[in-house]
Amino acid sequence: VCIFFFSRVLECQGLPIVNGQCDPYATVTLAGPSRQTKVKKKTNNPHFDEVFYFEVTRPSSYNKKSHFDIEDVDEVDKMEIRVDLWNASNLKFGDEFLGELRLPLKFLRQSSSYEAWYFLQPRDNGNKSLKPDDLGSLRLNVVYTEDHVFSSDYYSPLRDLLLKSADVEPVSASAAHILGEVCREKQEAAIPLVRLFLHYGRIVPFISAIANAEVKRTQDPNTIFRGNSLTSKCIDETMKLAGMHYLQVTLKPIIDEICQVHKTCEIDPVKLKDGENLENNRENLRQYVDRIFTVITKSGVSCPTVMCDIFFSLRESAAKRFQGDLDVRYTAVSSFIFLRFFAPAILSPNLFQLTPHHPDPQTSRTLTLISKTIQTLGSLSKSKSANFKESYMATFYDYFNEQKYADAVKNFLDLISSSGRKDHKSIEQPILLKEGFMIKRAQGRKRFGMKNFKKRWFRLTNHEFTYQKSKGDHPLCSIPIENILAVERLEEESFKMKNMFQVIQPERRVLYIQANNCVEAKDWIDILTKVSQCNKKRLTVYHPSAYLNGHWLCCKATADNTPGCTPCTGGLPANIQLDIDGDRETERIYSLFSLYMPKLEKMQEACGSKSVYDGPEEEEYSTFIIDDPKETYKTLKLIIEGVGTLEQEHAQYKRDKFKKTKYGSQEHPIGDKSFQTYIRQQSEISAHSI
């Protein structure tokens, strides 16, 4: 059994003012870690309008921050949603508690949607003399959903229809795209769709299809992927699921330092406190921005493969659509990785599990200034100073008006949008990822000896790894990326040379290379591993030493075709395995289709109207994207049939459940409103039949 809640924190009125200020935020808790809204500055009547999703399920399913296990579904009635209001304080003892609301879930089981105003209450162990109405009030909307998940075979028709969405032409006629069209909020559809497609390994083709369709509808390259479309929400959700570990290893160390050290970084002359120096603050902020910018632009090899594959598709679609704009291939990717991933994580680290609590006001201000600068650096805008409405930000940004920053961003975007893709040749021009002089030696071509080591110019693109005598010469050797089976360090004992690594190819061919230093060796190993990590024939074991004088120096095996003796270290470090229940996600999608059945039927009418009438579109149908009315109608018919079948199964399940249980038993005690509602519905059905 799966039970879903979403709680929308709407607004508050009349919150208390503490020490002359009120910067409120709310935390929402359900049997686990709390979720937090953004801080609203200088108001005791804040408007939040933020939604938080929670799930309760049996302990066999996966565990997430918003996902809690219970042994007995009846325990749900004993649970409660708690909303705490806090004032973000810069005092050492932490934020001030303003009041709380506790809402038992047993009341929500009587109604699918519940919205009301509540007086905030003091804590149970708080100041008992304080009157409840002195704490202000909170408007909260909570929606309760309870899903019964059947075995996998029940969902086959609907699941298969959803999973083939990427192959439907046009994609707007697919079941997944239709779900996005009928849902009230795109995120509502994106959450189960992304999880389902990730589980079955279809997320990249699906997002590629809907992104390509969106790009074709975009007229101005400057507005590409700027709206809250199904594409944007699906990519956001994918980055949240697959990229959380990436954020942890990239940003957490320096975010922790910023929160602990408390350097003053205020650069607005109006906000400077007594004793603060503007130039010192600018230098503190510049150092932080420089460090974060560097860790981000050097993190390409850690970017999860699924994100790289998606960015590749975005880049390719944008480049084909706007061939006259050379920057759009970069902005299509930066609009997600910088604007919707890194910048928000820096701005609100607590929402991305980078910090346990909302930072204090001074640290929050520092992170805001860093986030703004990083976002602008990543945008590659031609007139960056114009992006700031504040003159002090434009002045500060002059520090970064150097070509090296733009080059670093482009190199980073090149790497994360060209790695891990099987069909590299589909891009018109290869992307240069790294080049430079190194010393090489190929095994088995000539007699062993130092004279076989030669200095060559190496060049790596997303298509191939080559070397030539000098830069610009014709390649002497070319290794296609798909032929790189492993890239590993080589023990110094092999040739008595430091900083060596090996590129292993089919048929046991190995290219031995010496880099200029240990840093260069690591960089080459990381980037070669990154671009080849999705090759189907990648090795799992290798020989850390060379084959010399009739045996492998590492394991002493005499046959040159002996399998490796040491596990490969490259692997897929950026691929985080997600434990997702595909049946539960399909059940959630079924519930959404069932909830929005009137819209599905309205969309059917719109298809009929478009098929027979070629004039101006009726206003009530204009909200739907229907590129092919005939194909869309076919899919809608299959969706409605699939939903109808599952509705019958659920109805039968409820009948069987109530038939086997007596009223007054432990399962259905006297006063069980769900049982009474069922009895009343059955009576009405019987009366209607008679």
Automatic annotation (TrEMBL):
GO molecular function: GTPase activator activity; zinc ion binding
SMART domains per UniProt: BTK, C2, PH, RasGAP
PH domain residues: 431-533
Matches recorded under PROSITE patterns: C2, PH_DOMAIN, RAS_GTPASE_ACTIV_1, RAS_GTPASE_ACTIV_2, ZF_BTK
Record's keyword annotation contains Membrane: no
Pfam families tied to this protein: BTK, C2, PH, RasGAP
Keywords (A to Z) from UniProt: GTPase activation, Metal-binding, Repeat, Zinc, Zinc-finger
SUPFAM superfamilies named among the record's database cross-references: C2 domain (Calcium/lipid-binding domain, CaLB), GTPase activation domain, GAP, PH domain-like
GO biological process: intracellular signal transduction; negative regulation of Ras protein signal transduction
Domain C2: residue ranges: 1-118
Entry-linked InterPro entries: C2_dom, C2_domain_sf, PH-like_dom_sf, PH_domain, Ras_GTPase, RASA3_PH, RasGAP_CS, RasGAP_dom
Protein name: RASA3 protein
Gene: Rasa3
